[in-house]
Amino acid sequence: MNRRNFLSSTAATMAASAFAVRPLSGAPVQKAEGMNYAPQGKPRPVVKPGEFIIAAVRLDHGHIYGMCNGLLEAGATLKWVFDPDPKKTEAFRLKFPQTKAARSLDEVLADPEIRLVAAAAVASERGPLGCKVMEAGKDYFTDKTPFTTLPQLDAAKAVVARTGRKYMVYFSERLHNESSMFATDLIQQGAIGKVIQVICLAPHRLTPASRPDWFFQREKYGGILCDIGSHQFEQVLTFTGSSDATITRAAVGNFGNPAHPELEDFGEACLQGNSGALSYVRVDWFTPGGLNAWGDGRTIVLGTKGTLELRKYEDIGRETTGDHVYLADEKGEQHLSVAGKVGYRFFGEFILDCLNRTEKAMTQAHAFKAAELCLRAQAMAQRVT
User: Fold this and answer.
1) Do residues 309 and 227 both lie within one domain?
2) Are residues 155 and 262 in the same domain?
3) Which pLDDT value is given to residue 36?
4) In this structure, are 38 and 140 located in the same domain?
5) b/e per residue, 323-341, with b = 16+ CB within 10 A?
6) Cα distances (angstroms) measured from residue 20 to each of 30, 37, 112, 349, 350
7) Running along the chain, 385 residues long, what does each successive block of 10 average in pLDDT?
8) Is residue 367 part of a domain?
9) What pLDDT is recorded for position 29?
10) Do residues 267 and 252 lie in contact, with contact meaning Cβ atoms separated by under 8 Å?
11) Is the domain of 135 the same as that of 223?
């Protein structure tokens, strides 16, 4: 396909799947704080009401709101919510008043109508919780990072193999970001040729006063490459077309938060995928107070026929809106603003995968490999002071 036809086809695809991205009334979607960032798009249900019934449990991270938004827009019916803290449960029900408060996790798991359990537990508890959910015959959708240790990953793999249930992960920096999903399509369609290198830069705003105690405890959050880095390793695998990768270097450190000695506020890693492509990942908690968004997330992809740059959450000094895609190739250069034009197809595809036992949204092997890579990078990381 020539350049003109390719871009025309791309524009048509964008128009056909247009979403109207807008604030969720009353929900924590503020762009300034990543922990409570919950994108909402235009509903595009893939099932009828009551055909795919879900529950939300363990509301320890604000990402649970984005996870539920995505599933509800795709047609899911939210029946139950449970958290040991009744204040979290009631706050959730203010946003989703149709939801009933369960008395226990067991009450949720005993309900034969529940097909999927979404959860955003303390990071170190996500793996064991997922195993319990799958043993109860439900599919599981967890916030990232999905594990904090390799034994947790191994245990989940064993339960998936035994039960046939799904252990899926909310890698929101690609799955709930329109520029990232647009880039996924461009790369897979060959817009920039064979990918040579991916650079993922993912600064985040710390806002320590808004963070729970567990967030600063190394054993519970898993380390910065395990936590924020899980997003980036998933993107690296996707954009390079790799099913595996070797980590050649990793480093972490605490450069600006002496009051929280177990916090890692900086991390980086270098990888080579089995596709041959090289990648660099940098994550940190140093978003300055003057930035409009919670982080100037950027991804740069170098191909043999062109380059892509994603400015995910704003275009510094130019636009406070996000989802900017910059494409350059031998024929010229383009700036594509894709906000509201791509949507979040992962959620509908995932629901259909659960119903049909397929793997269109994401394969289980891919989700587990991204988790493994961030754990291995974390384990080998040199601590820099």
Assistant:
1) yes
2) no
3) 66
4) yes
5) bbbbbebeeeeeebbbbbb
6) 17, 17, 35, 19, 21
7) 41 35 34 64 90 98 97 98 98 97 98 98 98 98 98 98 98 97 97 98 96 97 98 98 98 98 98 98 97 96 98 95 96 96 97 98 98 98 95
8) no
9) 41
10) yes
11) no
Token pair for 279: 């990648």
Helix (H) or strand (E) holding 16: helix 3-16
Q: What would the two tokens of residue 140 be? A: 């599981």
What burial letters (b/e) apply to 198-208, b meaning 16+ CB within 10 Å? bbbbbbbbbbe
Phi-psi region of 18 (alpha: psi -120 to 50; beta: other; left: phi over 0): beta
CB 3 within 8 A of CB 331: yes
Q: Which residues of 123-152 are buried (b: 16+ CB within 10 A; e: fewer)?
A: bbbbbebbbebbebebbbbbbbbbbbbeeb
Q: Cα–Cα distances in Å, from 42 out to 66, 72, 98, 341, 342?
A: 13, 10, 19, 10, 11
363, part of any domain: no
Q: Are 46 and 53 in contact (CB under 8 A)?
A: no
Which three-class secondary structure state does DSSP give residue 252?
Answer: strand
Question: Where would I find the H helices in 136-277?
Answer: 150-163, 172-175, 178-188, 218-221, 224-227, 229-240
User: Of 170, 191, 223, which marks where a domain is finished?
Assistant: 170
Residue whose pair of structure tokens reads 């600064």 in the numeric block: 203
Distance CA 132, CA 138 (A): 9
Query: What do you get for the CA distance between the two ends of the chain, in Å?
Result: 51
Report the C-alpha gap between 117 and 112 in whole angstroms.
12
Q: Is position 65 within any domain?
A: yes
Q: Which residues span the domain enclosing 306? A: 174-344+375-384
- Structurally, how many domains does the chain consist of? 2
Question: To which residue do tokens 């390793």 refer?
Answer: 233
> What is the distance between the alpha carbons of residues 219 and 128, in angstroms, rounded to a whole number?
15
Q: Which of 159, 165, 94, 164 is nearest to 127 (CA)?
A: 159
Q: How far is CA 267 from CA 148, 310, 317, in A?
A: 16, 20, 26
Looking at residue 33, what is its pLDDT?
58
CA distance readout (Å), 357 to 78, 265, 266: 21, 39, 39
